[in-house]
Automatic annotation (TrEMBL), chain A:
UniProt superkingdom: Bacteria
InterPro entries: Bact_Lucif_Oxidored, Luciferase-like_dom, Luciferase-like_sf
Pfam families attached to this UniProt entry: Bac_luciferase
Organism: Lacticaseibacillus hegangensis
Protein name in the entry: LLM class flavin-dependent oxidoreductase
Domain Luciferase-like: 23-302
Record's keyword terms, sorted: Monooxygenase, Oxidoreductase
Automatic annotation (TrEMBL), chain B:
Record-linked PANTHER family: DUDULIN-RELATED, METALLOREDUCTASE STEAP1-RELATED
Cited InterPro entries: NAD(P)-bd_dom_sf, P5C_Rdtase_cat_N, STEAP_metalloreductase
Protein name, as recorded: NADPH-dependent F420 reductase
Lineage, opening ranks: Bacteria, Bacillati, Bacillota, Bacilli, Lactobacillales
One Pfam match: F420_oxidored
Signal peptide extent: none
Xref: Gene3D superfamilies: NAD(P)-binding Rossmann-like Domain
Every Pyrroline-5-carboxylate reductase catalytic N-terminal domain range: 6-94
Keyword terms, alphabetized: Oxidoreductase
Domain of life: Bacteria
Species of origin: Lacticaseibacillus hegangensis
Amino acid sequence: MTDTKYEFGLDTFGDLAFQDDGTPLNGDETLRQVIKEAKLADDLGIYRIALGEHHRPEFAISSPEVVLGAMAAVTKSIKLGTAVTVLSSDDPVRVFERFSTLHGLSHGREEIMLGRGSFTESFPLFGFNLEDYNGLFEEKIAMWQKLLEGKPMNWTGKYTQKLTDTTVYPKLPSGETISTSLAVGGSPESIIRAVAYDIPVVIAIIGGEPIRFRPYVDLYKKAAAQFKKPEHPLGMHAHGIILDDEQEAVEVGFKYIKAEMDRIGIDRGWAPMTRDRFEFEIDKGSYYVGTPEQVAQKIAHNMKALDMKRFDLVYGTGGQLLSQREATIRNFGERVIPRVKELLGGE
Amino acid sequence: MTEPVIGILGAGKLGSTLARIATSRNLPTMIGSTHSVADLKWVIDTLAPGAISATSADVVKKADVIILAIPLSRYQDLDPAAFAGKVVLDATNYWKEVDGTHNHISDFTHSSSEVIQDWLKDAKVAKAFNHMGYHDLEIEVDRHPDVPRAMAFATDHDDIRPLVKQVLTAFGFDPFDLGPLRFGLVLEPGSPLFGEAIPRDQFEAKLDAIYDSPFGKEIIAKRGGPIK
């Protein structure tokens, strides 16, 4: 399938960005900026770009497939994905239609990452009850997998529409599918279910020492053996800023990543991040902030420790200046990815 | 003192994390969940090696201290008779993703742990392990080995205070006694103390300023004054 053993990609939620003079970009401008950044990532040969779906003031992307469609028109080989599509509060049939449309527009470069939704704004927004959080996801992921079979659908559900011999269009070309992965956090149950679904897993490791996730990696492997399901390559997702000057990267991170975490923390009841914790996340934890060599060493170390084959770097967290965003993307593509591959000793 | 047997109900994010901390500190640990023991065992053997997987009934029967790490809204699944005379640490919080959009269990007039104590009327309930995120239970404790983080607790039963303190200390925390159970309200989601993994002096300062916060002001508005 892929010509490389490892996959490295960029993720963004479309955080509202800033001009280098500090002028904030509005949502429209940020969306067009993200298209430019995808073009840059494609030119640099980065494997994928994946967009988050959010319905919040600080993020411009609520409809990732529309943005991915625009990216499809200006890029050649980069995979165009979501991270994540909140399937629980969406209609799997419509999701399929949007992704099969993207399949056509992008020559099959579309990818979907399904999530239960760590942000929950989409539930009331689209008329779903958080009370049904688990039931919605279970049912819709089953419906999604059936849709992927590409046959006329017969379906009866509790939260979803009844379908009788219904074909969903545009149909995927015969033998082709929509590459699907599943995002999980720290829930043992989510990991076990992912194995049962037979869908590759990407773990969000956004705080603390990544090695703490090793038990979850082991759990995934054990569950695969237990259920006699294939063990898919694992992926991870984390935030980063890669600049030539280490101190500058740290300060940009403190200004923007911390601010972003604190904003989200207000809704989730997290305490504001201390400087001490922020520096810990860079030194030993889950922030990939520093020079290209530092970030490459850290990525390689953690991919090895956790047996990861996919690494998605969230860039532009908290907005950041356009030049800072571009520097991170360039450094990631030109220096970090080749160096990580070298350190991992693989292709 | 001999180590009390820790029994954890719930094997999700919080339960498995607490089990891992307990076993890493050589505390005898049992864990039970709604899954069968066979289904639970291979998961726990991976996530918290050393913890004994058991039925929930067995955990309740055999453990000296039972930690509730179940979704709060499922508290009525617990059999009050089985808990008679038991020491219970209520680590649950109202979490809308799990418990539903509308919190009908706790509000600014009473804490969810008081509801649990009312349900488990013959048990001795303490509220504990509530104000720290499950990931921070490990991260923040391990990275400050010399300055233990304050872990607040509240209970109406003076006779269990020494045991509660012993357990919290054994888990690596600095036990912080808030007093009677009703004071535990200040540990719940939305409070400035919620999410805090800080040393005692900082915790105390935040607690002292609680009624300056919007959360504290809501308590005053709904209760007609601070918690007394």
